Task: structure prediction
Amino acid sequence: MNTYTLCKKVIENKTYGEKDEMLSKMDVFLLNNRINQEQYNELLGLLNVA
Result:
């Protein structure tokens, strides 16, 4: 599984703890090109942040 798929699964299962923690992890993944901007935006929507 890739980083995007794992993040999506964690968000959908609500097993991420605090939203801020998950958001910080997603920021790091985006900065390190583990996920792209489109995937990041989708994950933000799932996390109900956007």
About this structure: The chain has a mean pLDDT of 95.
